[in-house]
Amino acid sequence: MPRRRAFRLQRKSKGKQMKKISIFNNKGGVGKTTYMYHVAHLLAERSLCVLMVDCDSQCNLTAYTLSDAAIRRAWSADGNSIYRAIEPVYRTTGDIRNRAPTPVPNARGDLHIIPGDLRLTDFEDVLGDTWSGARGGSEPALRAQSAIHRYISWAADRVSADLVLIDLGPNLGALNRAVLATSDYFITPVAPDLFSIQGTENLGNKLISWRRDWDLCNASWHDPTLSIPSGQPTYLGYVIQRHNSIQLHWNDGGVANLR
């Protein structure tokens, strides 16, 4: 797994580039969405323009952020959910739709969200089917693999984001491979248990394989008119979520009490 590095956030100015950070662990139930939600609001309060992207098919980040009416609008035919943005690529009828993110209601700062959509899981089959072709330099395959990367980059420019925070689902599938590839950095929230340790080890091994494959994609593609991700995210480190920890205390009768 990549070595942890220091990272300083600051407002984007001339010559400064927007950064993308994915919040990801293939072990679920570690509080990654809650962590990202609060961090995004805190950074927005500190005068950063933050774009949140919900790429988790469970859509908890979207549910935390938007009303049911706003979510229904995002999911409608002319909506701005992540699925609606890449739908023409999924259906092979066109390229990404450039639809502006939603401003977060009542945020104390410049905060936006690309709403999640349960139908994004349908796109995962396309990403799996086109992966071999992408490594060989096939343009249709690379358009599919880079669709989320290109849309997030456009949306970030649209709102002049200083930082993009991306919420990923707890798995090591083709969708997360594509989204992590567009990230500059990633953070793994973990719980203080054996399962989180094992999940982190699995993630490290998979990232080595994904990095090698994205190197093949980039080596096979030389047309600058189609932006594809580098596939080289840097590991910023882990965050221990202690609020879910449970302690067992055994009484004299051999019965466990939860505290």
Describe this protein's structure:
With 259 residues, the protein is of the alpha/beta class. 41% of the residues lie in helices and 16% in strands. The chain is built from 9 helices and 9 strands. The strands form 2 sheets. It has a 7-stranded mixed sheet, sandwiched between helices. A two-stranded antiparallel ribbon has the order 8-9. Strand 6, helix 9 and strand 7 form a beta-alpha-beta unit. It is globular, with a radius of gyration of 19 Å. The C terminus is likely disordered.
Distance between the termini: 34 Å
Percent helix: 40-55%
Task: Quote the average pLDDT.
Answer: 87
Instruction: Catalogue the unreliable spans.
Output: 254-259
Order of helices and strands: EHEHHHEEHHHEHEHEEE
**Radius of gyration from CA coordinates:** 19 Å
Largest sheet: 7 strands, mixed
Number of strands: 9
Strand content: 15-25%
What strand line-up does the widest sheet have? 3-4-2-5-1-6-7
Number of helical stretches of at least 4 residues: 9
Structural class by sheet pairing and helices = alpha/beta
Give the overall form. Answer: globular
Entry keywords:
9 strands; 41% helix; 259 residues; 7-stranded mixed sheet; 9 helices; two-stranded antiparallel ribbon; alpha/beta; disordered C terminus
